[in-house]
Known about the structure:
The structure holds two protein chains of two kinds. By secondary structure, chain A is an all-alpha fold. Chain A folds into two domains: 11-88, no CATH class; 99-394, no CATH class. Chain A contains 13 helices and two strands; from the N terminus they run αααααααββαααααα. Chain A starts with 9 loop residues before the first helix and ends in a 13-residue tail after the last helix. Helices cover 41% and strands 13% of the residues of chain B. The longest helix of chain B has 34 residues, at 159-192.
Amino acid sequence: MSAIAATEPFLERAPQLLRDAATGFLPEPWRWLVNSLIAIGVILAVFGTLFAFLTLAERKILGRVQNRPGPNRTPLPFIKIKFFGLAQPFADGVKSLTKEDIVPRDADQVLHFLAPVVLLAFSIITFAVIPFGRHLVPVELDAGVLYFFAAGAATELAVFMAGWASHNKYSLLAAMRALAQLISYELPLLLAWVPVVLVAGSLSTTEIVTAQAGWKFGFLPHWYVFTPWGFAGFVIFIVAALAESNRSPFDLPEAESELIAGHLTEYSGFKYALFFMAEYFGMIALSGMAITLFLGGWRAPLPFLEWIPSYAWFGAKLIVLLLGFIWIRATFPRLRMDQLTRFAWKFLVPLALINLGNAAFWSLTSHWTGALQLIRWAVSLVLIVGPFVLMGRKLSAGVAPRVYRYAPS
Amino acid sequence: MLGSGLLQGLGVTAKNFVGSFHDPARLTTTEYPEVKTKLPEAYRNFPFLVSENATDPMGTLRCVACQICEKECPPQCIFIEKSKDKKPDATGKLQLFPAVFDIDVSVCMSCQICVEVCPFDAIKMDQDFEIATTDRFTGLMLDKHALAKPNSYFHEIHPTDAAEVDGRLAAERKAAEEKAKAAAAAKAALAAAPKPAPAALAATAKPPAAPSAEAPKTPPAA
């Protein structure tokens, strides 16, 4: 944890003050241990609650998009007030806890049990390096970004474990799909954030947020998303993140219409809830990383809004991104397997590589000023929009717009 | 350009999302137990017995226990026991009435044949679908107290049908009354004929005499 200046606003220091009030009397090694445990507890509590209400928000928003009200009937316990169905997550939790946990006879008992545990563990440890606020970084690693994506990639291993251990053809097919999807989309995901590391000059998440400080013209923040290469990188990152977290339109591993429930077919009760939880934790972690890399981390979007504490800004950005994920899920139909891999290998990977060159150009021309600045922007824009349009044309040639032919009547 | 279709799609979902909050034409859900949809008039599920009067449903059942519906019912879900005595119906005529009238709605197939064969318009199709019970044997066996519903309720659920039935019944009653009147007049005329009274005098004297002549025949109208 970085040293905290006493001149900072009270709300900014409040979490640390609270923690120090609780653990300040402990001797040094014990204090470190208890502080870490508190950090873990807070992360689990905050993101567990966020997960609970995110499922509700998702169901309600999907409902509204489909012109129906969504879940709104679960009353608050004991007082019987239906408050927009806000108690729904708790009802779901009780339900999944009380359901029978069925393990198939032919399943690999150990792996079948281990898969949800491993998946959830890998999803949660990715939270360790995300800077949630100015002083709220659970673990400061020099190679934090690397750690994050290494841990994130390991979740697919757990998905394969689940598919293999279930001894079910649908589960196995889903697990193989999940691996294919991982290999396809891990590359654009990694190539999308390499430019950020290139420009920021560091793999540490704290350093990357620090590099995005300051304002252009006094109001435009120096976030990487407001540069041509940064915007392209952000879009590629979000697309790849959708695929990595198995979200619609890339939810092939659990395509209900084809594979029953994919790798979740043989899971019931609380193990199923753990998978569900891990999926949302993965989504939240990837959104948090997108915020850190491209959206200025916990920084305020405008100078006069800096009095609002940093963790509130992080939370606000996180919720906006998550609502965006839900919006995307509500809109797009699922891709076919060949479309999925083709989109990754023929479009996202080349575009991400070009974007890397674009960022290199941006980094090399950082000393340009005045009119040269305009040239820098123009060149950078052309470098990314040109390939996007040309490759998009190539990719959709013969595919769109679709011509409908009907039998002569 | 690649992606323009995606943005259009996002626009459509956003429009639906926002629209569902302020446009009632979009959000068509009616939240059932609190709000109920008006059922279409032609909707039918199980039969009920029509009674003329809501305050005395057992006394004013149209059913005369003729047992035609019981015999016609394809799944045989109707059970009727005739009464031993007679009591006056709505028109004042003495009729039998059902001492027992049970319908097992767990057997009923909602075919409406009982309604079609009933010559008295005494049995009609109901629209009450909230009849779930925890006991399938006695809970779904409806006796005549559960089945009897007033004519006003029939008007409520099948207005067109009910108006037609009421019109027909009224016309029939009027015709019956006129027939009775004519018969009484003929009887009176027959009684008056042997008297060698002048025809003109008899014609003027007959109208006031006719009601008094038929009065003892008809029971006092309630």
